[in-house]
Amino acid sequence: MPLLNVEEYPVVKVKGRKVKRRDVIYKGKEAMDFLEKIGKEYGMVYVIDVDGYRRNSPNLEMYKRLSANIWIDSLPRNVEDVMDLIIYGFENISIWNMGEEPLKEIKDMCDMKNIHIFIGADERKNAINIVKKYGFHGVITEGEEIKNDVETWKIYTGDWVIRRLR
Questions:
Q1: What does pTM read for this prediction?
Q2: Rounded distance, CA 145 to CA 161, Å?
Q3: What is the largest CA-CA distance in the chain?
Q4: Half-sphere exposure of 97 (CA within 13 A, CB side)
């Protein structure tokens, strides 16, 4: 599903099939029900998959059972990781600090009309250049905004939301 014309989505963290939002941790069926509920309420949920970040083992089987739209941030490390996310049905994917060569390969392999890839990097100017060069959907950041002309989203960890800046 394409991004809705919305300015913000809720952020959750998933670790060991548990879902955390603010100071509340949901487990088991309660976690699944919570993701479904906020997914329906907001149209999409931005999921930071901690297991993906730490162990390169995102909770893909868990998401497969959801009907809620998930924007996945699991720190894919290579082309195969991104392809796994696409095969699992994710249409909104964040990619952080990946080299330009694998990003070019991802662009060549993906139909960008149906897949929205957002590039995040420690050096945001580089991320902006890559988005423009390869036609990715936009930039994602956790830091200060850099003036640019591409779609930009910022994760506000304290507020547990991701907001569109541009």
A1: 0.92
A2: 16
A3: 43
A4: 7
At 126, which amino acid appears?
N
Is residue 166 helix, strand or coil?
A: coil
Cα distance between residue 88 and residue 108, in whole Å: 19
Q: At what angle do helices 100-109 and 124-134 cross, to 10 degrees?
A: 30
Token pair of 85, please? Answer: 């996310």
46 and 162 in contact (C-beta within 8 Å)?
A: yes
4, 11, 104, 110, 119 from 8: Cα distances, Å? 10, 9, 29, 26, 18
Please tell me the distance from the alpha carbon of residue 20 to that of residue 114, in angstroms, as a whole number.
29
Chosen CATH of 8-164 out of 3.40.50.1820, 3.20.20.70, 3.40.1190.20, 3.30.830.10: 3.20.20.70
Query: pLDDT tens digits for 39-75?
Result: 999 999 999 999 999 999 999 999 999 999 999 999 9
What are the distances in angstroms from CA 140 to CA 24, 96, 97, 143? 25, 9, 11, 9
